[in-house]
Amino acid sequence: MNAEPPPSAPGPLIGRSPLLDAVCPELDRRPAVVVITGEAGVGKSRLVHELLQRTRSPGAVTLVARCQESEAPFPFAPLIEALSHAGPLPADTGAPPPVTGVLPRVTGALRGLLPDLADRLPPAPPPLGEPRAEHHRVLRALRALTASLGEAVLVVEDLQWADEATCAFLRTVVSDPPPRLGLVLTARSHTVPHTDAEGSDGLPFPLRTPAHVTVVERHLAPLSAAETGALAAGLLGVRAVSEEFADRLHRWTGGLPHVVEEVLRGRPDSAEFRTGAAGAPEPPLPASVRRTVVERLRRLPSAARQVVAAAAVLGDPAPVELLGAVAGSDDPETRRALAAALREGVVRAADGTYAFPYELARRAAYEAVAEPERPVLHLRAARALARHASPLPLAVIAGHYRRAGRPAQAARCLEAAADRAAGNGDAGTATAHYLDALRIGPSPVARDRIALKLARVALNARPGPQVPAALRQVLDQRSLGPGPSGEIRLLLGLLLRNQSGSGLEALEEIARAVPDLLAVSTGQAARALAITAIPSLKGWPVGEHRRLLAEAERLLPEIEEEDLRAAVLANRATALALLGDPAAWEAVADLPDTITGEAAARAYANLAGAATSLGHLERARAFQARAWLAVRTNHAPYLEAFVETTDVVAAFTGGRWKGLLRRAERAEEQYRDVPDFHAEALLVCGLLRLHTKGQTDVARRLLERAVRTTALDTGVVLTAAAAAVTRVHLAAGRPAQAVQAAEGALHHVRRTGAWMWATAIAPPAVEALIRDGRPGEAHRLVAELAAGIADRDAPAARAALSTCRALLTVTDGPQAGSGAPDALYAAAADAWTRLERPYEAAYVKEAWGLHLLASGVAGGRTVLHEAIAAYQAVDGVWDVLRCQRELRDHGQITVRRPGALGYGDHLSPRERAVARLASLGLSNREIARELVLSHRTVEHHVARALRKLGVSSRTEIGSHLGP
Fold this sequence. Notes:
This protein is mainly α. It is built from 46 helices and seven strands.
């Protein structure tokens, strides 16, 4: 005998379980009255539905009445609707009613109200002839009919719209409820209700019950930000959403579940929207939110609507005086208006300010403001904020001036806001404000001034591509004099070089700035030349960079400005260090003490990277420490990224791999807007995935992305990535492909003459050439390396040269005067050990041990075990497996350590890797070479994968493997 239950929300029930757990047992203690209040869309109906599902018992009756908003409601309309769908009455089923066994005679008075049940009701009593008496009899009849239902739950929803007759019936029931009745009432309420006075928020009548009646009152609060995120994840069918997206969604919706569903229904397929990425678009305004807000506004007096319009224009929480100034009303009138808006739930009060409950509600109220009135209100808002706010919210005031149609004032405010942010060391905020000011279209004089400020501050802000585009637009106007034009072009080149991935284009832009700069400032011209003198693998030949450095040095005596002289000296020291010039360290010693802050962070991070690459460990540590010190005292996002990625690369180079993958992955995610930093993070992620996880496919994808991403590369990415891929091919027995993998990086080294950066690529390239039967080319490569670093201060490159010469002994013995192979290998391993490069030292020992085993000389097994121990010390799992396979290939037996715990019916990581390659069509032998495993081990893994996946052939694996 159940009426249709309330519709349940499509999403998961979030954050309501404790409330349900508390209310359900109370509802079962009959008679009971449960009152649920809360904002529209907070989930009252959904909660009631869950409550009924949990408390429903066989044979019980559930009636649901929903009040509807109407200007002239029909008396008892929701009750009539609910009772008409109640199903058979007790007299129809033969079940005895509670007292007499038949429906009470008074229920016959309901024949007119319930025509669908007239044939099952007693005869209609004679008319009383007095309206009030008739009304009272109907109330008694409704109560009697309700009591006759026995075990029953009566739900009346949206009591705020109940007609007077329905309210009168509910007062009657509440004051004397049937003993087996559970009454559930819901009403809209913006605050926790009070039940001691009629007309309280939510209920249209006082809740006065006898002492024996169970009464439960609960106000349903909106969801928290975390709960909003959990609801969103359930609606989107994902495990979780980002904390940033959950916070944004909560701000938009106020944590109202219905509004959350409406918002997500409007934008379900937008990844940018769903992840909450910075700059993601605002959601469309749901029609339900618009209707709710407009309905409430209509119930407000005109003065209150004007104050609400002022709040919508201001956006942020505002005090009474500010709202009055924008609305054009005095203090008493503003307070009366706010009281009315509070009663309707249009605004909320907090700490002496007033604001909308959530952002979409504010947008709905703003859209309700007539278009011609908006500029007037925005102009008032700008002027009122300038009078009442402290400190001045300049960016906010600029936004109001812009919407008021006053672009000149808006640009001035944005420029002032940017100046303030730059003065506080907040380069990111300053850049955003300068960029916004340019977009407004200020006067030519203001435009040129702002563009120069933007160019100066953006260098430390990690801006997007909009900044170079804006600067180019200003340069294209040709309204700048030589000095500003040259400086903007110089800074634009630096932006392109450091942050956009346009390496050669950046160098050419800086070179074009030099003539303009020479006309006005020798110091600026020398600075530009010194910047272009910094070498890179994707840049010009080393000789050209040396020429440019000489030009900058020639201008040094003529530089009068201390800051420019310091900048030139810093870039000179960086260039010399990267070139491996022995004079670099004297140049560092000549750096003035005036280099501090951002300039110091940039200079010492550059020097730390160069020292790490060249093999000057102690210098690298000292430079990195000074760079961190400078960064921690200056908020410059670009420099923080610079120093962090330099540190990550140094940690990998030094074999400090514990916990490094997580750090590198965090850097990869954070620094995607700066190509060279992103490339270095990708590089370290790829190298660690290879060496510590043995994930060759994943590693190669990461390394390829690093190579594509890097803009100029000062000897880090191209060579190390190529070296790793070369080693993968060598381990898989593909020497020809290994040679091919090395050729790209070697081409850049030969083209630029930057042999001091060949440290990583030279040894595996020599090994690949030897194993591919090309010893002559291997000898020529080693000779090129020796000649290229002959006058360079590059200990790491010299250790690499020693390694290459040891590797060459496998072809024709040691070169004249170079000693026996053992001596060469020992010298190379010692060199790497002194440089605190444990991976390279282990690599030399691996090659040495294999050389001894292949020669049949005693000691090969011992040396190879030393290599295994060294690899294990840095967690080089892939390298350990390779060495163990090499021992097996030479007939040596290795003792396996106890294995890890089993994976049961789930695939282990190694089984999954084998299964994935098998699903791609690789044979067991090819998989063995790819993963550095024995053929037999691969056979076992494939068999176990087939069994665990429940398939009978390799072709079926792919569809069962999952992501």
